[in-house]
Hints:
The complex is a heterodimer of chains A (108) and B (115). Chain A is an all-beta fold. Chain A has no helices and 11 strands. In chain A, strands 2, 4, 5, 9, 10 and 11 form a 6-stranded mixed beta sheet that branches. Chain A has a 5-stranded antiparallel beta sheet with strand order 1-3-8-7-6, with no helix packed on it. In chain A, strand 6 and strand 7 (59-64) form a beta hairpin. With 115 residues, chain B is mainly β. In chain B, 0% of the residues lie in helices and 52% in strands. The model of chain B has no long low-confidence stretch (mean pLDDT 94). The A-B interface holds A 30-31, 33, 35, 40-45, 48, 50, 86, 88, 90-101 and B 31, 33, 35, 37, 42-45, 48, 50, 55-56, 58, 88, 90, 92, 96, 99-106, 108-109, 111.
Amino acid sequence: GIQVEQSPPDLILQEGANSTLRCNFSDSVNNLQWFHQNPWGQLINLFYIPSGTKQNGRLSATTVATERYSLLYISSSQTTDSGVYFCAVAGGGFKTIFGAGTRLFVKA
Amino acid sequence: KAGVTQTPRYLIKTRGQQVTLSCSPISGHRSVSWYQQTPGQGLQFLFEYFSETQRNKGNFPGRFSGRQFSNSRSEMNVSTLELGDSALYLCASSPGRSSGANVLTFGAGSRLTVL
């Protein structure tokens, strides 16, 4: 099956700093999503981005499907950005595979 | 419109018991998928249903089962509970017609503790 690797596993930032989270996947996919899980466990969909670039406020994402990776950019980080960021992919079989996540802590 | 609703939110069971969790998807969504989240194994796919049919399943023992009703609501059942089944169980709904366009919306989860 498809393997998903996320890096870095942990990230500590000062408020206002920028960061880049990476997601590598082992096979072609037709679905890629980024999620943020808050401290209460709720998963929020940030982007649906199987290819190309999207932006939503301080967040943006880029997926290069031919090279099998996706990047999530967080600019001017805030304490509320803390949590775990997951990349999830599907290869066409209605089975979504999650990476292990990047745990982000933003210090005030 | 209402989001994905999971019940119960918290529950405690003892080894050997069984448990049933419920998931009501967003109105109009016909796909429901289930995931288990544990500190050691992360988020793992359990199964996915569309129009009452299971389209895919993960690598879990037969003690884990699910079903979907005609109104798209779904239940999952775990029989003969083990300590290792303690986890956050998450349900997601999506329109579901094609894998490529399946944007998942998650419920708040059901946190199961097995003693």
